[in-house]
Write a structure and sequence with these properties.
By secondary structure, this protein is an alpha/beta fold. The chain contains 13 helices and five strands. The protein has helices spanning 3-32, 54-62, 64-69, 75-87, 100-103, 107-110, 126-136, 151-155, 163-179, 200-205, 208-225, 233-236, 256-274; strands spanning 94-98, 116-120, 144-148, 183-187, 228-230.
Length: 277
């Protein structure tokens, strides 16, 4: 099949799907503003298997155009990266790389005066992050990269994935960083709570056993490979094994109190990872 024919077929498919995707996106946007119950009735979408969670089903449906056209979302930071390149090298640059927990973290406010760069994208999973690792980390030539990832993999944002595959993606990031002289810092996956109505779906989608399993692997992997392990989990978990209620309103994303706990831990980990570099 010729390139022109492939492009025509793809454009035709998008035209056919356009009305449905627009409607799905609007539904997902409205649904995101409402608390979702872990037992809420799902809204079936043709061609997309249900996860059993209405909110997650609607979110996944709304992401179809992105996953088809820019799986890794390279466009998100492309222009900003070009501006950084024009400005020249910065000796102590650190990239914070991850999903929405990083994306929502106002790095410039919590680390004033530091040459730290935020490269988080909400909703992303580790395979998506691998797609953009070169553009958003390696090409910025940072001294270190702080990687916080995995919670969305467990939730199934881009489909079911085994712990072994999450771990393989994280190991690949570490190997890429090492090959380019970048100190890697691996942050633990944060616990999740179900103390508020809006937290229940996030909690149900992210079993604590899987979070603990990946964190145990991360701890061992970092020890074997001389990588700094940034243990957020122990600092924010309560006596029930959940994220402390006062640290996140929706059970997943830290609020100001949560980020303030994370700041000194991140600073200490970066200092340890970059000593002598």
């Amino acid at each position: 099949m010729k390139l022109g024919e492939k492009r025509w077929i793809r454009q035709s498919a998008v035209l056919v799907m356009g009305g449905t995707l627009l409607a799905i996106s609007l539904v997902a946007e409205r649904a995101a503003q409402q608390p979702q119950s872990a037992v809420s009735q799902t809204v079936p979408t043709p061609g997309i298997a249900s996860t059993g969670f209405a909110g997650l089903d609607q979110y996944r449906s709304s992401r179809v155009p992105v996953l088809l056209d820019d799986y890794g979302q390279l466009a998100r930071y492309r222009a900003a990266n070009e501006e950084l390149s024009k400005a020249g090298l910065v000796k102590n640059r650190v990239v914070f790389f991850g999903d929405s927990i990083t994306d929502m973290w106002k790095i410039e406010q919590y680390f004033p005066g530091r040459p730290y760069v935020n490269r988080g994208i909400g909703g992303q999973t580790t395979p998506q992050m691998l797609v953009r690792f070169r553009q958003d980390v390696i090409d910025l030539k940072p001294r270190a990269v702080v990687i916080l990832a995995g919670t969305n993999d467990i939730a199934g944002n881009t489909g079911p994935i085994r712990n072994e595959d999450i771990e393989a993606d994280l190991a690949t990031m570490a190997e890429l960083a090492k090959a380019h002289g970048i100190a890697a810092v691996f942050a633990s996956i944060l616990p999740v709570h179900n103390y508020t109505p809006q937290a229940r779906d996030f909690f149900a989608q992210r079993p604590g056993t899987r979070i603990s399993q990946v964190n145990r692997w991360l701890t061992a992997y970092c020890a074997r490979n001389g990588i700094v392990y940034l243990d957020y989990f122990s600092a924010v978990v309560d006596d029930k094994g959940l994220l402390k209620r006062e640290l996140a309103d929706d059970g997943l994303h830290p609020n100001d109190s949560g980020y303030r706990i994370m700041v000194p831990l991140a600073e200490a980990a970066i200092a340890k990872a970059t000593v002598g570099r």
